[in-house]
Design goal:
Elements lengths: L6 H7 L2 H6 L4 H13 L1 H22 L6 H10 L9
Helix pairs in contact: 3-4
Length: about 90
């Protein structure tokens, strides 16, 4: 069964990055947590964002973990071209 994104889903997207970074107020975090408890599609989106952020951080911390061509493709895909080290 397909999930239809509600206005709540769309409004949550504006705060998603701050939510994952842990910079939102407790009240907004709790509101997003409640939404995620009932919305599997948004939960997948948040989990994917967290994993992506983790990969980017690991690549930035230790360039040996990902070969330069792999890192360049990842950064380009994520539109992080400014972080590509030539």
């Amino acid at each position: 069964m397909s999930h239809t994104h509600t206005p709540k889903c769309k409004s949550m997207l504006t705060s998603l990055s701050d939510y994952v970074d842990g910079t939102l107020s407790d009240e907004l975090c709790q509101e997003i947590d409640r939404h995620l408890a009932d919305c599997p599609d948004c939960t997948v989106m948040v989990d994917t964002l967290r994993k992506t952020v983790s990969i980017v951080h690991r690549c930035a911390e230790d360039e040996a973990q990902a070969p330069a061509p792999v890192r360049a493709r990842l950064y380009k895909t994520l539109k992080l071209d400014d972080y590509i080290r030539h």
